[in-house]
Amino acid sequence: MELKTSEFKIDSFKIRILKENLNQITLPDNLNAEIISVYAETGEIINSNQQGLKDKLSTLKLSNDDGITSITIAIESIRTSFKQREYLTLKITAKLLKQLYYKGITNKTIYNVVDYLNSVGVGISIEQLLKSEVTDIDICKDFNLYDNEYNLLINQIKTNSKASQEQNKGYNLFNQKDNKGIEFSSRKKATPNNPFFKIYNKFLDSASVKHSQFFKHYNIETETNLHRIECTLKNKKHFEKYNLKNTLETFMALKQEELRDIIYSITSAHLNKNEKNKMELRKQQNIYESYIEICLRLSAEINMPFEIIKETLLNTITNRNTKKNHEKLFEKVNLELKTSSAPYQENRKIEYIMKELCLL
Asked: Which pairing describes strands 179-184 and 71-79: parallel, antiparallel, or unpaired?
């Protein structure tokens, strides 16, 4: 059973550096961002109408390749109940790694991020970057599945989803020209108990208008059957749930097992992960294998055509829905007999990938 997955890795994050700690950092001359006010506890922008504030945010994008990649830099004013403090904020993504994009941001590639920052006029050392506060962290893992397998995965996730009538809870399916997948919660409104995660087609994403220029410019090949799971830790409250300090150094030091535990907790907020779901997958697998065995045996022993075997077995089923489901199983059995592509192993593969992605 061929199955490829990447390691868990960080795709993007936002860092804050206290303004009084910037004395050893060189900044671009054209950094003239206006000040915004945000809640220190959550990082959310305060509603200026409610607070009587007129502050606006002006961001500056810095690039060393004519805008193919960029960092977003700004000054923010963070207000607590006691005082207001100013921070330099930087939005960092794995695109800054260029050809190393699919390696993600790790304790090794973070040095490439520092080199990029220095190249656009942000003079910062690796030590200063690692000690910075961090928010809006996206953790991801890539995996390969063919379209029919991916559809089975999405359907199984739907089946396992926890029912909810509350707004911004439950799953949202998307099937558009530039992507296809499923997501839970809302990236902007995510909370520790209602975290955001999504699964999507990375090949379609790389070919979209938004991202295609980057992948073409750096000649980065994306396999046609590549997909991704992506989860977000939004702010300090999310970090506290996992006993994590809100510094970049903390996340660069996390091991694969620790990242897996975080992803498992996030997906568990939305999915039922019980033995019943695993048993249903195994039940379908057993049906596939039984039909394959029956067809092969009857075909070899008495030379009975496949269609006759199919009709004979289906005629023993009286329930209309069950019969319709078994007709679909026979289509896969027929494909297996003709091409030896072993589609009857799909459910075994889906169970395996769900475990790898912390979905089961």
From this structure: unpaired
Question: Which residues are within 8 A (CB) of 222 and not within 5 positions of it... i.e. 6 or more apart?
Answer: 202, 203, 206, 207, 215
Residues facing 48 on adjacent strands = none
For the residues of 166-213, what is the DSSP string, one character each?
Answer: STT-SEEEEEETTEEEEEES-TTT-BTTB--EEEEEHHHHHTSTTTHH
* Three-class SS state of 348: helix
Residue pLDDT, tens place only, 234-245 = 998 999 999 999
**CB-facing half-sphere around the CA of 61: CA atoms within 13 A:** 9
Query: For residue 150, what are the β-bridge partners?
Result: none
Instruction: Write the DSSP symbol of residue 57.
Output: -
pTM over 0.85: no
> Model confidence over 91-133: pLDDT tens digits?
999 999 999 999 999 999 999 999 999 999 999 999 989 999 9
CA dist 307 and 305 (Å) reads 6
